[in-house]
Structure formats: C-alpha cells, structure tokens
Amino acid sequence: MADQLIIFDTTLRDGEQSPGASMTRDEKLRIARQLERLKVDVIEAGFAASSNGDFEAVRAIAQAVKNSTVCSLARANDRDISRAAEALQGGARTRIHIFLATSALHMEKKLRMTPEQVYEQARLSVRFARNLAGDIEFSPEDGYRSDPDFLCRVLEAVITEGATTINVPDTVGYAIPELYGEFIANLRRRIPNSDKAVWSVHCHNDLGMAVANSLAGVKIGGARQVECTINGLGERAGNTSLEEIVMAVKTRKDYFGLDVGVDTAQIVPASRLVSQTTGFVVQPNKAVVGANAFAHASGIHQDGVLKARDTYEIMRAEDVGWSANKIVLGKLSGRNAFKQRLNELGIELESEAEVNQAFARFKELADRKSDIFDEDILALVMEGAAET
Ligand code: KIV
Ligand code: ZN
Q1: What is the 3-class SS of the chain, one letter each residue?
Q2: Fewer CB near the last or first residue (10 Å), C or N of the chain?
Q3: Would the CB of 13 count as within 6 Å of ligand 1?
Q4: What interface predicted TM-score (ipTM) does this complex get?
Q5: Residue whose CB lies within 8 A of the most ligand 1 atoms, among 17, 202, 229, 235, for a mutation test
Q6: Which protein residue has the closest C-alpha to ligand 1 atom 5?
Q7: Residue ranges of the chain with pLDDT lower than 50?
Q8: Ligand 1 within 6 A of 137 CB?
Q9: Which amino acid residue places its CA nearest to atom 1 of ligand 1?
Q10: Is residue 121 within 6 Å of ligand 1 at its C-beta?
Q11: What percent of the chain is modeled with pLDDT above 70?
C-alpha cells in the first residue's frame, strides 16, 4: 500500500495572516465545515491565545468538526499552550502546534535570546504541552535559515519530550527545491529519534516556489505532511497552494507514489468560498481553480480536445469540482469547435455550405470582438437565415 500524505490546511491561521483577509468566527466556521467536506486531515483553526475572537473560533471549530483533526497554534510558553488546550477541549481529534524561532537572526534580533535559552524553552514547552495533549506539532520558525547543528539538537530534544510532528518552515520563502529537500533529508538522517515523528513542510511563496519546495520536501526529504492553504492564501506572497499540491501528487502518482485522502470534487467549492469570504479574487490563469484552468481558446487545441480530451488536459475539470471544461469561442477557434457549439445550442443548419457561411461570419465578428457569447452566435445564424 502507498504511504499517505497528510494534508494540513492552514487557511484559517496562516491564510488569515494575509493583510485584509481577517475572518469572523462564523466565517471561519463555514470554511472549516467545507474543509471537513474536502476531507483534509488537519485544520489549523487559528491561534487561540492571539485574541478572544480567535479563541472562540478555534473552540467553535473544535466542537463542530468531527472528521478532521483541529489544531491551534501556540507560542512556546505555558500561557499560549494552556489557551490552545482550553479552546480545543472536547474536540474529537485535536492538536497543539507550538512554534519557536531557531535561526541566529531571529534568536538574536527578534527573541533576544541565546541559543541555549531557545533550546531549553523549546524542550520545556513541549514537555508542558504533553501533559495537556497527545498530538503535538513543533515548528522551529525560520527553520530553513537555521544552523543545522543547532536545529538537530533542538529537534532531537523536542521529539524526546513527545512532539509527534516536526514541521520545518521556510518562513520567508527563501528555499530552492533541491536544497530544501536535502535539508530535510539531512535532518532526518542525523537526528537519532527522527523516525518517532512525522516530518512536515511549510513553505512561503516569496520567490514563487512554495509548491515546488513542498514537493521536494516530500520527494527528496521524505516529509509526509504538507502545510498549505486554499488558493495559496497567506502572509505576504502566500503559502503553498492546497489545490496544486493535491492535484500534483494525484496526477503524478507515478512519480510520488503517495495517496491523498482529499475529496478533490470539493476543491472548486472550497476555492470559491474562501475567495468570496476574504474578497481575494482568484487570478484567471491560477492552476486548478482559475477560471481559465480548463478553458481552451486555440483552434488546434479545441479540435484536439473535441476529439480526445487528454490531448490537452492532464486532469478532468469535473474531478476538481468544475461542471465541465470550456471551449472558448474566439478568433483562434476552428470550424469544428464552432459546429460543436451550434449543436449545443440546438441549431441545425441544413447544409455544410450554410455552416461554412455562418463560420465565415463568426470569424469576421471574432476579429472585431474578443468575447463571443452564445447570443452573438444565435444572432449571426439568424442574420444568415434572413439573407437567404
Ligand atoms: O511560516 C512560519 O514559520 C509559520 C510557523 C508559525 C509555522 O507559519
Ligand atoms: Zn507560515
């Protein structure tokens, strides 16, 4: 049996960190229910200690969601961890996600702590959380820019204290796919108890490589959890996009050899809900969920797709929640696509000569007008009928 890739959705936590994407408790709850329908393995519902509103949102989601693990973020201190545990109390499956920065830059300039202090705080925070929860994730923030020797020490210690998932964030989107994959493989090789934890990737998109880096973390590094968001929402340039990760692993199962539990038919509904809730428009050429992701405009492509869809489609639009693929009529379209649209509109022309005339009028129109609607086609057919 193939290994399972755990899909950890952080739309409601890291996604919400997008400037302008703040969500109310009820909006978060609605999205969490859709994430559960999508069958993601883990929903990071928020950061319980950050505000009363987020505490309430985490609490409501933990009560409502039964089939996905519900997680709250917490800094590595007793108060944050206790707040997370309190918000998650009574949930069917819950996780506390603790983070503490480990890069020299963050420790010195942001935390103003020595590496020894960070090491101790990481260890003791996981020990504290272990008394409150069985499922604990630890993230060394800015992990990818951390000194590997120091990181190995910290991660070995938190696994010994009971962390069950180790997440290696590329917090500032600085990684390159091969290097990030090797970074994780190296940590797993060097840390003696590394096999006691599930390894996870968390990549930001500052250089547009979040998805590629995450996939390299899986393929080269051996990670078995990917942290991602719907539509790639997230701090600055965003996070790894869930829809791209899921469809890459499914479409290229020949390469990754992994199973994903997500119900892909719920991807487009999830994308729409997140876009409507946050007001963040999805770009038309966005992979999988963009309006043009399954639209064909070139005549040669349209002809190919009408003969056999897999000539120009590596996934089915219907499999990710679209009602169908799209043949967009325009100046590049060929006669075959035009004839197909006439059929769909229920227009039967008497002879091939009439089809040719209507097609010629369509081409003239398409040179003047970029969007050709069904009404335009009906009008030009009627115009032709009136002339004869
Ligand atoms: O990007 C990051 O480092 C994070 C951590 C809190 C996991 O979001
Ligand atoms: Zn992040």
Answers
A1: CCEEEEEEECCCCCHHHCCCCCCCHHHHHHHHHHHHHHCCCEEEEECHHHCHHHHHHHHHHHHHCCCCEEEEEEECCHHHHHHHHHHHCCCCCEEEEEEEECCHHHHHHHHCCCHHHHHHHHHHHHHHHHCCCCCEEEEEECHHHCCHHHHHHHHHHHHHHCCCEEEEEECCCCCCHHHHHHHHHHHHHHCCCHHHCEEEEEEECCCCCHHHHHHHHHHCCCCCEEEEEHHHCCCCCCECEHHHHHHHHHHCHHHHCEEECCCHHHHHHHHHHHHHHHCCCCCCCCCCCCCCCCEECCHHHHHHHHHCHHHCCCCCHHHHCCCCCEECCCCCCCHHHHHHHHHHCCCCCCCHHHHHHHHHHHHHHHHHCCCCCHHHHHHHHHHHHHHC
A2: N
A3: no
A4: 0.99
A5: 202
A6: 141
A7: none
A8: no
A9: 171
A10: no
A11: 100
Token readout for 173 is 């989107």
Residue 370, pLDDT score? 86
pLDDT at 199: 98
Q: What pLDDT, on the 0 to 100 scale, is given for residue 388?
A: 66
Q: Is 139 in the pocket of ligand 1 (CB under 6 A)?
A: yes
Please indicate whether residue 169, judged by its CB atom, sits closer than 6 Å to ligand 1.
yes
> What's the pLDDT score for residue 385?
75
pTM: 0.95
